[in-house]
Amino acid sequence: MYKHDGHDLFVIDGHMHFWDANPENWKNKYGESWIRCFYAYHSSLSPADAVWPFEKFCRYGEEALVDDLFRNGYIDMAILNSTYLYEFYKNGFNSHAQNNVVKSKYPDRLLLCGSFDPREEAAGIDAFRRMVAEYPVTGLKLYTAEWRNGSRGWRLNDPWAYKYLTLAQELGIKNVHVHKGPTVYPLSADAFDVHDVDYAATDFPDLNFIVEHVGLPRLDDFCWIAAQESNVYAGLSVAMAFVHLRPRYFGEIMANLLFWLGPDKLCFGSDYAIWSPKWLIEKFMAFELPEDLKQEYHVDLTLENKRKILGENTARLYGIDIAAQTAKLSQDGIGLGR
Amino acid sequence: MPENVPCDFPAGYDGAAILDRLEQVLDPELDEPILDLGFVRSLRLRSGHANVALRLPTSWCAVNFAYMMADDVRRALLNVAGIRQVTVRLGDHCAAAEIEAAVNEARPFAEAFPGEGAGTLEALRLTFQRKGFLGRQERLLRELRDAGCSPEIICALRLGEVSVCDDKIMIRQVQSGTAQTLQRYLERRAELALDCSPAAALIVDLEGKMLSADQLLAHYEAVRTVRVAMEANGSFCRALLSLHRLDAHRGERDVQT
Q: Cβ of B225 and A223 within 8 Å?
């Protein structure tokens, strides 16, 4: 909960990780390159006093996560990504099974995303059904750039992707987070192209597609699609980080998103542990859209819009009643300790 | 900036021609000169052989773009009188050896990197040249608007009516923006083979069609988003490049190695 001038803002972190990138888990050179790439984004865009040692960044563990999000980072609820990367990490980077270890300890605070890989075709269908049956999966995180057996990626409108999306819908899943963001070595930039979202969003009107990292640096392509498709949302992680180092540019991104999508389709995410919610939220709340941008775009980042972005929009997507959830969370181990 | 690039030229050699050529080499995705971005680490000339060391922001910068920049440097310097050979180095880039071997032997990307988006390099370049055209046009439109030009005036202007005086754009004897903004726009317009004759409209879309005053606002709203999107990678690159500087300052090994 973020308190601002006597107002309470319920905060949902729509995009965060509980990863294991310990050297013992690196399968090959790519396991190391991957986490070093994340670390470069972390150390170049974070405020100096929020930069961690590399060793902690590889494996920060459950206590740090609970402190950084719920105790010190204003987060009420958070959505755990599942990113497997079995070609780079022996036990995976953060599989749904790993994520569920922490989810099961804080069931009311964490939401769990599962995933599928359409390249498994028919062979993966049973495992997908089992994952949804055995784990409290309420959303999906799809990673179209993941390597698999020589393939450098897939697209949301591949025939097998459509079969999995159909099945996910039958199993009651509503929200699909899709990673479309900056290049992460060693993944191919082409695999983060955003145009496949357009097809899937049109063909699955009852699913919500949250495009994580707003397609950066393909913000323009993302905006055209999101402006046309009522079920496409902006996941703000990565874009949020500019609020510190390049606030003017952050303002330009926000002005464009408010202009094309409006305030009801923008969802906060920290991308923790790449960046920590405490400074992101403090700087975001202190940020005001520069006057010339307000006039140029005819939009504003008002307190009401910030409230929507930080929590209300994601709560709506996941059917969370904020008042009831606030009451519930005040009674758990973390809420009582406040 | 060029003055920050350590240059080692033979005694009495005027390096201005080299730096002028290098100034023309752009990061194709960012549409900014690699010299301004700080991607050129050092430059050395001996007996007609130029050695250029580049320093990309990260070791994982996309291989296709890294190849393009290295190859553009080689081609640019081969156009300088007296330079017969060019060797480009990429430092700690993850594919430095392969890219350097291909570029310095003038082998095409598709041959050097089969399977890495082979054959699409020119299509990729064209995609970003088109985005760059819109980004440059957005800056021009903004300056014209800020100078008080109405949509009707802007859409009616022909290239022949626009001139440059010192560092200003002149329209009907009125200063209307900076000459550099206009020149960058016209350069890219020519590269895309769009009509640049005096009778052609100043503002055209990617197909070369002129716009009506009614269409201009929607067009402007779109190109301004293209410009902001193009600046995203520039922001990442500058932030990531600052890590190198920080490390050089500390005298430590590079973070990415």
A: yes
What is the identity of the amino acid at A232? V
User: What percent of chain A has pLDDT above 90?
Assistant: 86
Does residue B257 surpass a pLDDT of 80?
A: no
A300: left (phi over 0), alpha (psi -120 to 50) or beta: beta
ipTM for this model: 0.90
User: What pLDDT digit, counting tens, does each position of B92-135 carry?
Assistant: 888 899 999 999 999 988 888 876 654 578 888 898 899 999 99
| Record: contact B231-A252, CB cut-off 8 A | yes
Distance separating the N- and C-terminal Cα atoms of chain B: 25
Rounded Cα distance between A313 and A265, Å, is: 7
Query: Which of A30, A37, A45, A220 would best serve as a mutation to test chain B binding (most B beta carbons within 10 A)?
Result: A220
Measure in Å the smallest separation between the Cα of B195 and chain A Cα atoms. Answer: 26
Q: Specify the CATH number of the domain B2-119.
A: 3.30.300.130
Q: Does B229 touch chain A (CB under 8 A)?
A: yes
Cβ-contact A74, A277 below 8 angstroms:
yes
CATH no., domain A2-327: 3.20.20.140
Domain ranges, ordered by start, for chain A: 2-327
The one-letter code for the residue type at A150 is G
Going A99 to A105 to A110 to A115, the CA torsion angle's sign is positive
Residues of A in contact with B131 (CB under 8 A): 220
pLDDT tens-digit readout, A217-245: 889 999 999 999 999 999 999 999 999 99
List of chain A residues whose C-beta atoms are within 8 Å of the C-beta of residue B229: 216-221
Q: What is the mean pLDDT of chain B?
A: 88
pLDDT digits (tens, 9 = 90+) for A112-121: 999 999 999 9
Residues 6+ away with beta carbon under 8 Å from B11: none
Domain ranges of chain B: 2-119, 122-223
Convert the pLDDT of each residue in A65-124 to its tens digit.
999 999 999 999 999 999 999 989 999 999 999 999 999 999 999 999 999 999 999 999
B256 touches chain A (CB under 8 A): yes
Selecting from B61, B131, B256 the residue whose C-beta is nearest the C-beta of A36 gives B256
Chain B hits for A218, Cβ within 8 Å: 229
